[in-house]
Every structure is written in structure tokens, then in C-alpha cells.
Amino acid sequence: METIRIQGLDRGDVMLYALSTCVMCKSVKRLLNELGVEYSYVDVDLLEREDKVNARNEMRKWHPKNPFPMLIINNEKCIIGDEPEQIRTALEI
After folding, report:
1. Residue 15 sits in which domain range?
2. Which is it for the CA torsion 72, 73, 75, 80, positive or negative?
3. How many CA atoms lie within 13 A of 87 on its CB side?
4. 57 Cβ neighbours under 8 A, 6+ residues apart
5. Residue 84, Cα to own-chain centre: how many angstroms?
6. Cα dist. 45→1, 60, 86 in Å?
7. Neighbours of 91 (CB within 10 A)
8. Could you give the number of structural domains in the chain?
9. Domain of 58: which CATH number?
10. How does pLDDT run along the chain (93 residues), one tens digit per residue?
11. What is the C-alpha to C-alpha distance for residues 29 and 63, in angstroms, rounded to an integer?
């Protein structure tokens, strides 16, 4: 599965699982961009079938229902939804 990498301030491994049409997903991307954080993301709805299954399996490790957006930080913390304060705190910004 190919992800898109946005360059910025290193706050560890930051991965966002999103949907291309999701307003909350766009909001989280915008926040990460405003904070200048380096992160990777994938718009799961735009993936081919096999990659989509793989992405959802990865997401399922964090939450059984695959909610969007799902932000994984350093493979230790998962933030579901558009939660700016939780994101800032987790990224220590």
C-alpha cells in the first residue's frame, strides 16, 4: 500500500487513515499541515481492492469498526475523529 508523505517537523511516525470525501479527515490533514508536522496518509477509499483490505486490516488492530479519520502516532497511540487538542497533546505541540 502506497502512502503519501508530507514533509515537516519530525514528531515520530505519524500515520493518518482517511477518506477522500470525509470533512473530518480533511480537517485533520489541514491541522497537521498547519502544525507543520511530518506525516503519512492514505485515502482508503481511493485504494485498489487488495490495498484497501490491507489498510482496513491495519486499522482493525486499533479499532474493530475502522472509523475515519484514524491517526496513529508512533504505533502507540490512536486518535479517532477530528480531535485537535488530543492531536496537539499527542504530538507535544
Report:
1. 4-90
2. negative
3. 25
4. none
5. 13
6. 12, 16, 25
7. 21
8. 1
9. 3.40.30.10
10. 889 999 999 999 999 999 999 999 999 999 999 999 999 999 999 999 999 999 999 999 999 999 999 999 999 999 999 999 999 999 987
11. 20
